Amino acid sequence: MNYSEARAIVEALIFASPGPISQKRIAELMDLAPRTIESIVKDIQDKYRRDKSGIQIVFVAGGYEMTTRPEFADFVSKLNIEVRQSLSRPALETLAIIAYRQPITRPELENVRGVRVDSVLNTLMERRLIRVSGRKKAPGSPALYSTTSTFLQWFGLSSLHELPPLEQASGSLLPNIGF
Amino acid sequence: MKDAPNERLQPIRTLEELARALERGDEDPSQVSARNALEEAMSEIERVMGKPDLDYIGDFLSAAGAVIRAKAEKLLPPEEHDTCETRDTGESEEESSLSDQERELSNEALLAHLMEYRVFQDAVEELARRDTAWRGVFPRGRQIEAKDDLPLPSNEIGLSHLLSALKDILEDAPREEFPHVPQDELFLERGMDHIRSCIREKTKVGFVELFAKPVTRSSVIGVFLALLELIRLKEVVVEQDRHFGEIMIAFVPGGSAHELQ
């Protein structure tokens, strides 16, 4: 397979994939090195940019995904495509705490926010932005909540490490994911 | 207290004396059953008076409240302001400084908590910014859903899709001089039977095929109403295997009509 053929196949795989497809998966399917795939994807991205294309390839939730460009959102949304609702402030606050301190229990969340979070947690679960990732070994075995890959896609994050570091946070209070 | 014969006042006086005894410490509060005392007083009142008047009930409640308050004050821990008063009136230095230390620790914890909350606010701003920015990015394959979906048994097709398909069929149907859509149940039943038999023949039937030729506008509307009725009865589902694909009608899997098929 020559380079232009490989580039076309990578483009086809990303196009046909129902969700983000990882570099490793493409490499396996094409029997190529992951670094080669990275280089090919970059090449396709540059081509789309040069051509001022309406679509783009983004790296979210650990994989490549083909999306429309944000500047055409007004036109695309006229297609009756489901446009997701913005998250409320309480939902964003709860989500931010879970993202940085996961896995975390409901009482721990309520301790930081100072209010009950039951209904917010339900909303976030319904939208599949969080999930129950386990049970804490504590009296009552409270559920532990973590973010999902939908969370990464929702905010266009490639991984949790792309979250900005928390400024001035006292280390002892934020022990879990190395920020 | 209003004027009343001594006998009538006796139960209330008994309660007042009990309250005073509890306040003085003459009675052990843990051994006094306020409930029994109040029930005894109430029985006595009923015996003497029959049905007590409202003024008398007020006096009874006041005395009953005094008993309960006196017992509660002896048994429950003192309130916060009582502790402060005690300190002002000669508590030891050691105890006083310990409380200050505790208060300081509590303030530190509160400050740390507020700082932590503040730190997360920055993260919230970042997430809010990303939330807005990525709302306008549509990944390939995002579900297209009608905004005016009717709660039909099928998740795929909404009323708007069906109406749109109906409009196409009506446009092709010849106009009648005096169009008339019969509203009687028999007409609806005939339409429903027609749809059922179409589905039985092929398992699934295309929406357009339901309207067998020759068609008139009134017969089209009649069959359409029958279809809506079957959907309402959860007898059939309306499906579309791909966007803009053909609308297909089938029996609800596991439904009575499906089993008869």
How would you concisely characterize the structure shown here?
The complex is a heterodimer of chains A (179) and B (261). Chain A is of the alpha+beta class.
Word description of this protein:
The complex is a heterodimer of chains A (179) and B (261). With 179 residues, chain A is α+β, with helices and mostly antiparallel strands. Helix content of chain A is 44%, strand content 14%. Chain A has 2 domains: 3-79, Arc Repressor Mutant, subunit A, CATH 1.10.10; 89-173, Orthogonal Bundle (Arc Repressor Mutant, subunit A), CATH 1.10.10. Chain A is built from 8 helices and 5 strands. Chain A has a 3-stranded antiparallel beta sheet with strand order 3-5-4. In chain A, strand 4 (130-135) and strand 5 form a beta hairpin. Chain A is elongated, with a radius of gyration of 20 Å. The termini of chain A are far apart. Chain B has 261 residues and is mainly alpha-helical. Among the domains of chain B are: 6-76; 159-260, Arc Repressor Mutant, subunit A, CATH 1.10.10. Chain B is 62% helix and 4% strand. Chain B has 9 helices and 3 strands. The model of chain B is unreliable at 79-96 and 144-155 (pLDDT under 50). At the A-B interface, strand 2, helix 4, helix 5 and helix 6 of A face helix 5 of B.
